[in-house]
Here is the input.
Amino acid sequence: MTILEFQQRFGSEESCRAYLFASRWPEGFLCPACGAQEVGAETGRHLWICTACGRQTSITAGTVMHKTRLPLRTWFWAAYLVSTFHPGISAKQLQRQLGIGSHETAWAMLHKLRGAMVAPERTPLKDEVEIDEFFLGGYEEGLKAGRQRGKKALCGVAIEVRGRGSGRLRLATLPDANGVSLGAFVTDTTTAGAIVHTDGWQGYKPLAGLGFDHRPLSQRAALPGEQLLPRAHRAISNLKAWMHGTHRGVSPDHLPAYLDEFVFRHNRRGTPMAGFQTLLGLGLAHDPITYRDIIDRAA
Ligand SMILES: [Zn+2]
Here is the structure.
């Protein structure tokens, strides 16, 4: 959906509520208390009343927007920007773009939306995976721009090989680059038995013993100008560009949340509206509702 389509589709509170209703109850209303499918009138406070048992159900119950004082439109826009804008968005940018009153409110919204970014059902990477480790950070707030470097954090990257392109991505901070830490990172992110490409670092030696088809590469084996782990290196350079451009003041404590956000957008780059629904806390039990579905239903 383009930004113009989004604006037209979700230009009013009513249209946002209609979308929530269609996303939560794609087969029509279902009472969470008694399972009846008969719904009465919508109250002035936008609660739906079950005609069988009288239970009132809020359209936002179970979503990130429940009991919010902010307009639904603001939440929809925030989720849209966070899930579809490639560079992502900072709390300061969100506050400015959406006219949110305080920085704290914008920060809290981003925090809630980011809470949905680690999908509990996500499955490990498989088949063929590139693994590498790298340093990230040194952009901490309070340091003179570009002169003093903050503390850099060691991170691990794992990315699926899909033909000439890349599949799913995982990132994590690492305590160090020894065999125990790297073995734990690969075991956490990748299915046993997968082909695992790494460089020749000794910390990767335990991988064969952990059940992986480990294929270490030596730089000497590469042709001049060729990168050993091209997908991993592309992901790392994109991550660094994003971190440096959008989130200059990230302390190491918050780094894992930013890694999750980067992974979230990477892994949903082909299906941004699915990412949008996930962030709002919708569509977990079924396929994402498309714009087309809504149009078809209304017709
Ligand atoms: Zn009921």
